[in-house]
Design goal:
The complex is a heterodimer of chains A (about 525) and B (about 300).
Chain A lengths: L1 E10 L2 E11 L4 E5 L6 H8 L7 E6 L2 E3 L4 H7 L1 E4 L11 H8 L6 H14 L15 H14 L4 E5 L7 H16 L3 E5 L3 H7 L2 E6 L2 E6 L6 H9 L17 E10 L9 E9 L3 E5 L6 H9 L10 E3 L2 E2 L5 H6 L2 E4 L14 H9 L4 H4 E2 L5 E2 L1 H15 L15 H13 L5 E5 L7 H16 L3 E5 L3 H7 L2 E6 L2 E2 L3 E2 L5 H8 L6 H10 L1
Helix pairs in contact in A: 3-4, 3-5, 11-13, 13-14, 14-15
Chain B lengths: L2 H28 L7 H19 L2 H25 L4 H20 L13 E2 L9 H5 L1 E2 L1 H19 L1 H11 L1 H6 L4 H27 L11 H11 L4 H24 L5 H21 L1 H7 L13
Antiparallel strand pairs in B: 1-2
The chains are: A alpha/beta (about 525), B mainly alpha (about 300).
Protein name (chain B): ABC transporter permease
Membrane topology (chain B): Multi-pass membrane protein
Keywords (chain B): Cell membrane, Membrane, Transmembrane, Transmembrane helix
Amino acid sequence: MLAVRNLTKLFGTFAACNGIDLDIQPGEIHALLGENGAGKSTLVKMLFGVLAPTSGQISWRGEAVSIASPSAARKLGIGMVFQHFSLFEALTVAENIALSLDGTIPLARVAERAAELSRAYGLPLDPKAHVADLSVGERQRIEIVRALLQNPQLIILDEPTSVLTPQEADRLFETLFKLRAEGRSVLYISHRLEEVQRICDRATVLRHGKVTGACDPKKETAASLARMMVGADVPHVSAAGTNTKGDVLLEARHLDVPARTPFAVSLKDVSLKVHAGEVLAIAGVAGNGQGELFDALSGEYAVADPNAVLIRQRPVGQQGITARRLLGAGFVPEERHGHAAVTGMSLSDNLVLARNQSDRKAFLGGGVLGVIKYVAVRLASRRISEAMDVRKSGDDPTAGSLSGGNLQKYIVGRELDRQPAVLIVNQPTWGVDAGAASRIRQALVDLAKSGSAVLVISQDLDEIFEVATEVAVISEGRLSDIYPAIALSREKIGLLMGGLQGQPEALTEAAHAH
Amino acid sequence: MGIIEAILLTVVTAATPLVLAAIGELVTERAGVLNLGVEGMMIMGAVLAFAATQATGSPYVGILAGIGGGALFSLLFGFLTLTLVANQVATGLALTILGLGISGQIGEAYVGMSGTKLPPIAIPGLSEIPYLGPLLFKQDLIFYISIALVIGVNWFLFRSRAGLKIRAIGDNHASAHALGIGVIRTRYLAVLFGGACAGLAGAQLSLVYTPQWVENMSAGRGWIALALVVFASWRPWRVLAGGYLFGAVSISQLHAQALGLGIPSQFLSALPYIATVVVLVLISHNRRMTLINTPASLGKPFVPDR
């Protein structure tokens, strides 16, 4: 259906894609594997007409084509779900969908059509909601429905399942199988090897802009695929060593937070305790109060009752982020760009922004003037980069120039470098490649072993089972009981995610029988 | 005609150019382009409308000349900021200064000449309604156009596909480009529309408000129109309401002086800007309000990465 020969894209002298060959047959789900920065995004952008190739050839159904624009790609029958969402925050869900339909349906009817189709594909959406009010997971559903609505012959999906529950992912896979049965093709970009092995018919692996393997993923092992991707074996997250449980370092007591906007989730009677030496993972589908919980625990928004949040047994509900940091807590918010880091500023400047109070002595001089000690900051920044294996161009580049995985490693490293007694991380490896994800998870596990309390909010069950000692599930702003990680299976977590509360006996019994 | 009626009539005349210039700038800004050159485009419209009316004797030709002048001037802005990607704020300011200068040059020959006033058009039946009739249905063509534009723009932005595309571009031009919407082309059209409206507003000044040419006769109305767009939080109906509010304030300035009320006229002339600041504070107080109301890519240059 689609054949790519010797496709090359140069940015200056840097070859983002270097002589790529790719063949997609009708009716197959084709995986495109590779770490961040391997050239996957550049390749699919060329296929979708967003970028123009420097050289090489694309043929569509046997005929050489030049895809000049996304609308040209759509006319050929190529649909795309972007990794960085191409949604309009100020517009409603229906309006966002209408924009990508080529004017065949009257605007007034798009809302009901969208609602119908989103139900049919098992991706529930409220067409009248503003995108600004939706979570990452809900936004991705819009992207998927939007691409499917165009009735494409080839649909390109970039990391589509990273924010879905296993059940939702299964439903998506069913949709993909349906598409395949209709003779359509899917180009499926993912880091999740077992997912690729489960649903994909063939795989093309990229590394440093070149094809390093074309195979049937079902005949490969996860390890052999990972080797093609990374060029070396991906280190397993090791849970070796013992976790010594200590005092309660982070606690929430009957935390109630009303919804800040009409579309936000309110937190209802959330209680949790994280002991020294524990990693408590909070599982849940996007938009169930994770962001609100992070805001309340980190102090981005103070809560009414000072005793509702305790860090090292001190009531901090009314305190701000800096005060909580000074007590030895560290925070990594979900959004890398613009929230955890200022993309236009250098890494060392970002370091000062985060730690100018908690490390005042080390980074600032001149008394009240607060003059930045650049040498000390640069050294600390270099230390963090080395500790977390951050790959970057130059000594101190802007945060935005790093790939997602490398920036995330830096941001997590920035907190770890302080040896925080309490670390709260929201979606630590969202959109991060396998190598970087394993590095970050290992760091979280190691931090807990060294006696800190770690709270990880994640939608990725693989991640949760790799790092957690304890697991709780958040659903509609309510937190389940906390279970030891070994007593839970994927299915149980899936049930809890769906809001099955108040039946701990049934759950633990099932876990014992398991 | 009673005194109240006379005052209200002057309010309508004072509000019309504000509404016109603001509704044009609203469309431009909804597409993500900040054109601070409204004052310059308006004054160009005023002088060309006056000149064309003098040359042909027909104020309707004058209206067309005013629209054309404003549009042409905005095209210069579009070329500089959209094609050459110059800074929008600096270019807009330069456009205003340039417009004031060129219009003074063109208008030198017309200073002191008495102009031709655009005749009112009475709408049969409706204009007989007591009080309301003469106020709303015995007006000149430009007034009717201003009302029709507000209704039309509101429908266009929120009900039509093309309007949806404009809002999408203003919110996130990179995503709009990725969807295959012609960002630069659409922005050119939005800038042209803004220029044409500003030019028409200028024509109203020299053909209706004071039918003569006076240098700098726009007298800061372009700036009030810019403030009005923010005051209206980029909503057409609020532009209409705000335009009449600001128009009333500027008229009350004159009457307050005439009646010897104790309100300093400086305070009254500052009132539109104070109101705008209050609205800005209210909007930015709430993140959601900001996200939904403000064109997020306003003033940001767009360069497709091909």
